[in-house]
């Protein structure tokens, strides 16, 4: 299937007669004329993903590029290339791959005004530069060449620019041209090879020039002039302002080449999205006894995962010792997909433990070197664990006061469990 394509392409066509010496050009290399419909031989994807995940899709093909759409025909272009990563998906979605080959169409000659009717001429004046024509492009094409009529007795340079509707220079070329004749201006071909994407209010202008033929409204029928079947020249432009609507500046007998694209049949890649499971079920707050862990909490769900933060960035083991007044977060995983987090506040079960630690003091917190602990009941031992529940150090004591050396520990949060003969209490300490 062949349609117009939106991709830069340039043709290099041989010209009969005098050739310009190109001093500067930004033109790229051409595609060969004609194209062949490509084929997609295979596609791939994850098959099934969890809700909120992205999918990576692939396609094997013999075209220049692979494009991805949201429909079998028409639709929206989602991206290009293989592999291609989708946005996060919330439901089962079909993606459609299309392979593309690009080439040039058939050149069209005689576009714009073919030739002037008189010999009125002027060179570009620096104070009002540039001079030229304003035009629209109904589809992508390349301006291969234009003809100017030289009226100067001396050779000179012409700098031709293609500008978009913001007056940004899309392409530029400087060409050295021979002498002409004011009484009988000499036609001269400028090879431009300027690519023009579909759009409006382009300017083809000369910023400097030798003396060239341009026509007043008394000498030409009037705008617009068709650019073959690809667009139209709608007016003259001077000093980057399309206000010279009656004057036709310089550029005659355009040769233009439309773009052509060949595409494959679209191939579907289906991504099945598994909905996220609900959060597990549990009461909050829950009470616990000293020394109990996450495993002792009453939670209904499958494949539970606990976290210390509400964003689910820090997973903690189920052996983590519970800390009074702390909120833990838990999710369940069903069919390989993890659901939302459920917060659970835990509170120490009050009773004889209050009597054991009624006068407990500890300082400083945060601590830099040593943590000083005192209590009205004898402290038998102290265990320090990190936030993963791993034991970092254990110290026996046997007195009412105790000092824990934490100078060697890394900065962070630690759980310090204090044991009396019959009870224990865990406190949260920050190491600076």
What does this structure look like?
- With 432 residues, the chain is mostly beta strands.
- It is built from 1 helix and 38 strands.
- It has one helix at residues 352-356, and strands spanning 2-3, 21-25, 40-44, 48-50, 56-61, 65-69, 77-80, 84-85, 93-104, 108-111, 121-122, 131-137, 141-150, 156-163, 169-177, 186-196, 199-208, 212-215, 225-226, 231-238, 241-244, 248-249, 252-263, 267-274, 281-282, 286-288, 299-300, 305-307, 315-316, 327-331, 333-334, 337-338, 342-348, 361-363, 370-386, 391-405, 412-419, 424-431.
- The strands form 8 sheets. Strands 1, 4, 6, 7, 9, 10, 13, 16, 23 and 24 form a 10-stranded mixed sheet that branches. Strands 2, 12, 14, 15, 17, 19, 20 and 21 form an 8-stranded antiparallel sheet that branches.
- Residues 1-33 have low confidence and may be disordered.
State the major sheet.
10 strands, mixed
Gyration radius, in Å: 39 Å
- Strand portion: over 45%
Mean pLDDT over all positions = 87
In angstroms, what separates the terminal alpha carbons?
A: 69 Å
- Portion in helices: under 10%
Number of helices: 1
Q: Runs with pLDDT <50, length 5+?
A: 1-33
Structural class: mainly beta
Tell me how many strands there are.
38
The outline comes out as elongated
Pfam family, one: Por_Secre_tail
InterPro entries: Ig_7 (IPR044023), Secre_tail (IPR026444)
Protein name: T9SS type A sorting domain-containing protein
Keywords: Signal
């Amino acid at each position: 299937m062949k349609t117009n394509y939106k991709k830069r392409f340039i043709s290099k066509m041989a010209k009969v007669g005098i050739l310009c010496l190109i001093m500067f050009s930004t033109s790229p290399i051409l595609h060969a004329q004609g194209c062949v419909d490509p084929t997609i031989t295979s596609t791939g994807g994850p098959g099934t993903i969890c809700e909120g995940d992205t999918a990576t899709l692939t396609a094997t093909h013999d075209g220049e590029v692979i494009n991805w759409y949201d429909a079998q025909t028409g639709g929206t272009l989602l991206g290009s290339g293989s592999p291609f990563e989708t946005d996060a998906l919330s439901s089962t979605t079909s993606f459609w791959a299309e392979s593309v080959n690009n080439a040039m169409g058939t050149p069209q000659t005689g576009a714009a005004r073919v030739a002037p009717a008189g010999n009125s001429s002027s060179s570009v004046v620096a104070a009002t530069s540039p001079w030229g024509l304003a035009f629209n492009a109904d589809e992508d094409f390349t301006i291969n060449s234009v003809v100017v009529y030289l009226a100067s007795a001396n050779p000179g340079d012409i700098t031709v620019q293609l500008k978009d509707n913001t007056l940004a220079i899309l392409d530029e070329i400087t060409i050295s041209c021979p002498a002409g004749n004011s009484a009988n201006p000499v036609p001269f071909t400028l090879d431009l090879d300027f690519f023009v994407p579909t759009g409006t209010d382009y300017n083809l202008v000369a910023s400097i020039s030798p003396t060239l033929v341009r026509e007043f409204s008394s000498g030409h029928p009037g705008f617009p002039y068709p650019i073959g079947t690809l667009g139209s020249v709608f007016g003259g432009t001077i000093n980057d302002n399309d206000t010279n609507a009656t004057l036709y500046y310089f550029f005659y007998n355009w040769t233009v080449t439309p773009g052509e694209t060949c595409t494959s049949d679209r191939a579907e890649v289906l991504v099945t999205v598994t909905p996220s499971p609900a959060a597990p079920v549990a009461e909050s707050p829950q009470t616990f006894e000293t020394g109990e862990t996450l495993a002792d909490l009453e939670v209904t769900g499958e494949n539970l995962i606990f976290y210390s933060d509400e964003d689910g960035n820090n997973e903690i083991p189920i052996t983590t010792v519970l800390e009074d007044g702390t909120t833990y977060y838990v999710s369940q995983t069903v069919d390989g997909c993890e659901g939302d987090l459920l917060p659970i506040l835990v509170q120490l079960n009050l009773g004889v433990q209050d009597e054991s630690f009624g006068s407990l003091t500890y300082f400083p917190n945060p601590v830099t070197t040593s943590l000083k602990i005192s209590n009205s009941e004898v402290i038998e031992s102290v265990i320090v664990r990190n936030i993963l529940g791993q034991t970092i150090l254990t110290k026996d004591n046997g007195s009412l006061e105790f000092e824990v050396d934490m100078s060697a520990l890394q900065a962070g949060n630690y759980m310090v469990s204090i044991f009396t003969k019959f009870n224990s209490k865990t406190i949260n300490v920050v190491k600076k």
